[in-house]
Design goal:
A hairpin with a 2-residue loop joins β4 and β5. Helices cover about 40% and strands about 25% of the residues. The protein contains 9 helices and 10 strands. It has helices at about 45-55, 75-85, 100-110, 115-130, 145-160, 175-190, 205, 230-245, 250; strands spanning about 1-15, 20-30, 35-40, 60-65, 70, 85-90, 165-170, 195-200, 210-215, 220-225. α3 (about 100-110) packs across α4 (about 115-130) and α5 runs parallel beside α6. The strands form 2 sheets. Strands 6-7-8-3-9-10 form a 6-stranded mixed beta sheet, sandwiched between helices. A 4-stranded antiparallel beta sheet has the order 2-1-4-5, with helices on one face. With about 250 residues, it is α/β, with parallel strands linked by helices. It has a single domain (about 1-250), classed as P-loop containing nucleotide triphosphate hydrolases (Rossmann fold), CATH 3.40.50.300.
Length: about 250
């Protein structure tokens, strides 16, 4: 059974005299434990799509189901509880609290859930070990490299064991070495912990770590490819081929 089902969603911005359709009748499903990348040029609608799934934006039409719960109908406390308990967010600019250490940034998500202190300590140390950031737990964000900050942000996103991890251009602010390290950790979490990940990216190298890539063009689902038994290099080549089909507007973003 699918963990996530997107059914005919549309998202409009503006008013009648100046209406923009950012997402145009998109439907797809994501299985539990799947690592899906969403690609497209700047302005293609990929981030708007992610924002609708994350409930940051409300859909204009259509429905989104997570474990058969229609999340487009949630409001107020129900919506807050859903975001807190079911979703993990990883942003390009990290969004860490500057006045908290790495340990405190990661622990904050569990504190909000009112977990016991003993459980919080165990969970934070466990996820820090998995992501290779045990040595920075006592540091503040300004004392860390970009790669360390992004791994702390990733630890904060997954420490609550959310049903769905949403990553918006997670490697956008990282150098190539840090990007590769982060993506290998994503693969580890996906493979060893069966984490379900949806990642928006404009970068073919980053997308090649996923098991499936959806391509968005002008707010519509343009194509999708599945990695299957391909090596990452072979999958990368297939992604490049589709990106070429998408046209020149994408090459500007790659």
């Amino acid at each position: 059974m699918s963990l996530l089902r997107i059914q005919n969603i549309e998202k409009y911005y503006g008013n009648r005299s100046n209406l923009t359709k950012a997402v145009d009748d998109i439907s797809f499903s994501v299985e539990k434990g799947e690592f899906t990348a969403i690609m497209g040029a700047s302005g293609s609608g990929k981030t708007t799509l992610l924002n609708c799934i994350s409930t940051i934006d409300r859909v204009t039409a259509g429905h989104i189901f997570l474990e058969d719960q229609d999340i487009t109908q949630l409001k107020g406390r129900e919506l807050n509880k859903f975001r807190r308990d079911k979703l993990g967010f990883i942003f390009q600019d990290f969004n860490l609290m500057d006045t908290l250490t790495a340990y405190e940034n990661i622990a904050l998500a569990l504190s909000i859930q009112k977990r016991p202190a003993k459980d919080i300590d165990k969970a934070v140390k466990n996820v820090a070990e998995q992501l290779g950031i045990t040595d920075v737990l006592g540091k503040y964000p300004y004392e860390m490299s970009g790669g360390q900050k992004q791994r702390v942000a990733s630890a904060r996103a997954i420490v609550t064991e959310p049903k769905l991890v949403l990553a918006d251009e997670p490697t956008g602010a990282l150098d190539s070495k840090s990007s590769k390290m982060l993506l290998e950790r994503f693969n580890y979490l996906n493979r060893e912990h069966n984490a379900t990940i949806i990642m928006v990216t404009h970068d073919s190298f980053t997308a090649s770590y996923a098991s499936r890539v959806l391509f968005i063009k002008d707010g519509k689902l343009f194509n999708e490819i599945i990695r299957g038994n391909d090596s990452r290099r072979q999958f990368f080549d297939k992604i490049i081929n589709v990106v070429t089909l998408l046209g020149g507007d994408v090459s500007d973003a790659l």
